[in-house]
Design goal:
The chain has 14 helices and no strands. By secondary structure, it is mainly alpha-helical. Helix 6 runs parallel beside helix 8.
Length: about 350
C-alpha cells in the first residue's frame, strides 16, 4: 500500500520495489481501461432504456467512494503494525483542504459529462472526450511546466480538427427523441467536460507534488487519501443537485418504468458506480505511477474499443464523419506517443553519455 512514486533523482530501486511499482502500474492501467470503456457504455444504456436523471448519473460516477476506505484502512493497519504511533492519515490537512476544490471541479465535470451523454451517442461522446488530451497538454504546460513539443502540438491540432468534423455533421446521428438543440447542448457540454478534466489532471499532479514537499515521501496510500476526499466532495456536490432536482424520490418510480426491468435498473446503477470508480482510481493511480499525460493517452487510445462496443451492444450508427474524426484522433494519439517515445530515448542516450564521460 505504501509504494513510493518513482523519482529520477533516486538510486535505482530494488528489484522487489521495482516489481511492485510495475504491478501497480498494470493494475491502475487495467482499472482505467475498464472505466474508460465500460463507464460510458453503461451510462448510455441507462439513458437509452428509460433513465432520464442527469444528476443521478453524475452522482453515481463517484458514489462508490466508500470502496477507497478499504485501501486507506488497510494502509493504516499495515503502518500501525510497524509503528504503534503511526497517524491515521498520511496526508497533511493543508493538502486535504486543497483536494476540496478539486472535488467540486470533479462534481461539476461529472454533471457536464452526464448531461452531455444524455443527448449524444457513446460513439460521438467518446471522440469529443478524446479532446481532453489536447486540453491536458495545454494545461500541463501552464501548471506543471511539462514541455510542449512538435508532436504534442500536432496532436492538439488533429484532435481539434476531429471535433470540428463531428460538429459540421452534428445532426446525422441524433438518438431517438433528441432534438437538434438538445444534441448541440450535449455536444458543447461534453467538450466542456473534456476541457475541465484536462485542467483537473495537471492540478491533481501539482497537488501530489505539494504533498511530497518538505522531504515527505509520496506513497500510493497518500494518493488514495487525496482521491477519497475528492470523490466524497464530488458525491456531496451531486447529492445537493439530486435533492434540488428531487431525484431521490424519483428513483423507485423510474426503476419500475425501466425497459429492462426494476432489478436490472439497480444492477445498471451499481455497475455504473463501480466502473466509474475504476476510471477515477485508475486515473490518479497512473498519474502517481507515471505522469499526467499517460492518463490522457490511455483514455484516447481506447476510443476505438468504445466505438466498436457502442455499435455492437447499443446498435449505434457509425457514420463516415465519425470514421474521419476517429482517424484524426488516433493520428493525433500516434503523433503524441511517438514524440514521447523519441524524447525518452534521447534522454536515455544523453544520460548514458554523461555517465560515460564522468567515468
Amino acid at each position: 500500500m505504501d509504494v513510493e512514486a518513482p523519482k529520477d533523482t533516486r538510486p535505482a530501486p530494488a528489484p522487489r520495489a521495482k516489481g511492485m511499482h510495475w504491478l501497480l502500474v498494470a493494475i491502475n492501467c487495467g482499472m482505467l481501461t475498464l472505466g474508460t470503456t465500460g463507464g460510458p457504455l453503461i451510462t448510455r444504456l441507462y439513458y437509452s432504456k428509460g433513465g432520464h436523471r442527469q444528476w443521478l448519473s453524475a452522482w453515481i460516477e463517484t458514489a462508490a467512494w466508500p470502496l477507497l476506505l478499504i485501501i486507506v484502512v488497510a494502509s493504516y493497519i499495515t503502518r500501525r503494525a510497524r509503528d504503534p504511533s503511526a497517524p491515521l492519515l498520511l496526508t497533511r490537512p493543508r493538502i486535504l483542504l486543497a483536494a476540496v476544490p478539486l472535488g467540486l471541479a470533479m462534481g461539476a465535470d461529472n454533471f457536464l459529462y452526464a448531461f452531455g451523454l444524455s443527448y449524444l451517442p457513446v460513439s460521438t461522446s467518446a471522440i469529443l472526450i478524446s479532446t481532453q488530451l489536447a486540453f491536458t497538454v495545454f494545461f500541463a504546460f501552464l501548471i506543471v511546466r511539462q514541455r510542449l513539443t512538435a508532436s504534442s502540438l500536432n496532436a492538439v491540432a488533429l484532435l481539434t480538427i476531429g471535433a470540428v468534423v463531428l460538429g459540421l455533421h452534428a445532426s446525422s446521428d441524433r438518438p431517438a427523441g433528441v432534438s437538434r438543440g438538445q444534441y448541440w447542448l450535449g455536444f458543447v457540454l461534453t467538450l466542456g467536460a473534456a476541457a475541465l478534466y484536462g485542467l483537473m489532471l495537471p492540478l491533481v499532479e501539482l497537488t501530489y507534488k505539494r504533498a511530497a514537499g518538505g522531504g515527505r515521501v509520496l506513497t500510493y496510500a497518500l494518493v488514495i487519501e487525496v482521491q477519497l476526499v475528492m470523490s466524497f466532495v464530488a458525491t456531496a456536490f451531486g447529492t445537493v443537485g439530486m435533492v434540488v432536482n428531487n431525484d431521490f424520490q424519483a428513483i423507485a418510480r423510474e426503476a419500475r418504468a425501466f425497459e429492462l426491468g426494476e432489478a436490472r435498473y439497480y444492477t445498471v446503477l451499481v455497475w455504473s458506480a463501480i466502473l466509474w470508480q475504476f476510471y477515477f482510481l485508475g486515473s490518479v493511480g497512473v498519474i502517481f505511477c507515471v505522469h499526467t499525460l499517460l492518463t490522457g493517452i490511455i483514455i484516447a487510445a481506447f476510443i476505438p474499443v468504445t466505438e466498436v462496443l457502442a455499435v455492437v451492444f447499443l446498435h449505434e450508427k457509425f457514420s463516415s464523419e465519425k470514421a474521419v474524426a476517429l482517424v484524426l484522433s488516433l493520428w493525433g494519439l500516434a503523433s503524441y506517443s511517438y514524440g514521447e517515445y523519441a524524447d525518452a530515448q534521447a534522454t536515455k542516450k544523453k544520460a548514458a553519455l554523461s555517465e560515460a564521460q564522468a567515468s
